[in-house]
Structures are given as structure tokens and as C-alpha cells.
Specification:
Elements (H helix, E strand, L loop, with lengths): L1 H25 L15 H14 L4 H19 L4 H15 L7 H16 L4 H17 L6 H17 L5 H21 L6 H20 L5 H17 L3 H11 L9 H6 L1 H13 L3 H19 L12
Length: 315
């Protein structure tokens, strides 16, 4: 009975501790606002600079242990979970990705993501930046066009950026394009013919990007704009949206003409084939047949072996 009597006291103490914990979590203040990036610490830059220069010499196997020693000293001085440690890990990852030890870069960026979550919080621009870089490093290190792990990181980074940055912010836009590209490649390579949810998501992301590009007009890089439209055209094609596919293929692919570099037809062979099929699906068979015939003609004309000149005997 005495145990039952103290239950209300235990409950109230527990409730009070939970309230304190909840207040502490809700009241967490990152070193910089969630929509800002942290300033670079010159002291950390100075520590990492010699390693960056040493990696250019090609002696990476000797340099990496020295980098780890520097990281250990930074952790000892500033703390394992500090803005300085986060900066050091990011700089290490970037310098390794640009050297002969790119295979190690994603390991350090993964550590940077963990530190960033602790230092800045899970919903912060710094955390999103580290997640985005980690996604790119994973595909580069594994020599992959896409990976489920990268898609997960890009998805999380995008959700963070959408929460703390304006919808037309460059980091949001780039994130949406990268994620759309990964989703398209995953769908294409895994043969998910029945499940087109990846394509639907990619189309939605790219539609938003193109609407932002339209609003920003001449300030948008022409190549970036064309790349997004071409990807949207390809995604539209596999969603059986042939009207949008044909529209954006015609706006981004070089016209079929004798002055066009034949290499263009080879590099973008899939896109040209999808354009031709889109035109056929829309009933524009004459235009589709002409495009196909012209491309074949130009390729044959530029790859035909040169006629040898008969040798003449000297008299």
C-alpha cells in the first residue's frame, strides 16, 4: 500500500523531468540560424591547408594518417561535436574527393553529417548541405549513376531546405534537380515498368524547377535550363506524356540539320529516339520518319570510309 501511495509523487517527478527535457529540446538554439551557413573558421582552414597541398603531391597514403591526427587535435581542443570539427570533417572530405583518395571522402562526410545534426540540429541548412554532398560522394566513390542511399540523403536534404529556405533558393532548385535525376535513373535501371511513382515525383520536382526558371528568365544559366527541360522531356516520355515530351525535346535537342555535329546524334541517341517515338505517338509520323531518315543519313555520310586513291606507278 505504501508503494501505491508514492506513485503520484513518482508520476509528478517524472512529468516534471519530461517537461524540462521537452523544454530543453524545443529551446535548442543552433550556433547560427537554421537558414544560414556557418562562417568558416580561419584557424581550421590554416590547420587543413598543408594537408590540401600535400595531397597534390600524390603521397596520399602518408597524408591521410596525418589528417586524422589533425582531426583528433581539433576534437580535443574544440570538442567532438563542435562547429570547428564539422568544418574540419567537411574540408577533409572535399580535399580527399579532389585527390587520389576520393574513395575515402564519403566516410568523412558521413561523420560531418552526424556532427552537423548534433551542432546545428536536424533541420538546418548546414545539415542539408552535408547530406547533399554525401549523396554525391557516395555515387562518385562507388562509380554509380544512382544509389538508394544517395536518394535517401537527397530526399532528406530537400525536405530540410524546403523547410528553411525560399522555394526559389538555388540550393533548393539544385537539390530538386539532383533528386529528380536519381529517381529517373533508378526507375530506368531497375525496370520498374508497373510502378511509375518515381517518375511522377521526378516530373513534379522538375515542373517546379522550370516554373522558377521561367520567373527568373534571363538570369538562369542557359545550359542549366536546357538540361532540366531535357530531363523533363525524358521523364514525360516514360510517363506516356508524349505531348510534353515532344515539346521539350524540340526545344532542347539540336535541330536535325547538315551543320549539326554528328557526335550530337550519338551522345543524345536515346533522347532523339524518344523524340521520334513521341512524334509518332502524337500522329506526326511524317515528321518522325523524316527526322529518323535525316539522322541516319548524316551519320552514314560522316562515318563512311574515305575512298582510297589508286596508286600510280612511276615511269
Amino acid at each position: 500500500m505504501r508503494f501505491i501511495g508514492v506513485l503520484p509523487i513518482v508520476f509528478m517527478v517524472g512529468l516534471g523531468l519530461y517537461a524540462f527535457w521537452d523544454l530543453k529540446i524545443d529551446g535548442f538554439q543552433p550556433p547560427v540560424p537554421a537558414d544560414k551557413l556557418a562562417d568558416s573558421n580561419p584557424e581550421i582552414e590554416a590547420i587543413m591547408a598543408p594537408h590540401r597541398e600535400a595531397l597534390k603531391t600524390g603521397l596520399s597514403n602518408r597524408i591521410v594518417p596525418q589528417i586524422d591526427e589533425s582531426l583528433a587535435l581539433i576534437a580535443e581542443e574544440f570538442g567532438e561535436t563542435s562547429p570547428e570539427m564539422n568544418q574540419a570533417l567537411v574540408e577533409t572530405s572535399i580535399m580527399l574527393s579532389q585527390s587520389s583518395r576520393a574513395d575515402l571522402a564519403d566516410d568523412y562526410m558521413l561523420r560531418a553529417v552526424d556532427v552537423s545534426r548534433e551542432v546545428y540540429g536536424t533541420v538546418h541548412r548546414e545539415t542539408a548541405l552535408a547530406l547533399n554532398d554525401l549523396a554525391n560522394l557516395i555515387t562518385d566513390a562507388q562509380d554509380l549513376s544512382y544509389s538508394e542511399e544517395s536518394i535517401g540523403h537527397l530526399q532528406e536534404a530537400m525536405e530540410i531546405r524546403q523547410a528553411v529556405l525560399p522555394a526559389d533558393h538555388p540550393e533548393v532548385i539544385v537539390n530538386e534537380v539532383n533528386l529528380a535525376d536519381q529517381l529517373f535513373l533508378q526507375w530506368q535501371n531497375e525496370g520498374l515498368e508497373e510502378d511509375k511513382s518515381n517518375l511522377d515525383t521526378a516530373a513534379s520536382l522538375l515542373s517546379h524547377v522550370m516554373s522558377v526558371h521561367a520567373e527568373q528568365a534571363d538570369t538562369v544559366n542557359a545550359l542549366d535550363k536546357a538540361s532540366v527541360q531535357l530531363l523533363f522531356a525524358r521523364v514525360s516520355f516514360y510517363r506516356d506524356d508524349f505531348e510534353n515530351a515532344a515539346k521539350y525535346f524540340s526545344e532542347t535537342l539540336s535541330p536535325v540539320a547538315p551543320e549539326t555535329d554528328p557526335a550530337t546524334y550519338l551522345v543524345f541517341s536515346n533522347s532523339y529516339a524518344e523524340h521520334i517515338t513521341s512524334l509518332s505517338e502524337l500522329g506526326q509520323t511524317e515528321e518522325a520518319d523524316k527526322m529518323r531518315a535525316d539522322i541516319i543519313g548524316y551519320l552514314q555520310a560522316n562515318t563512311a570510309p574515305e575512298e582510297s586513291t589508286p596508286a600510280t606507278s612511276e615511269e
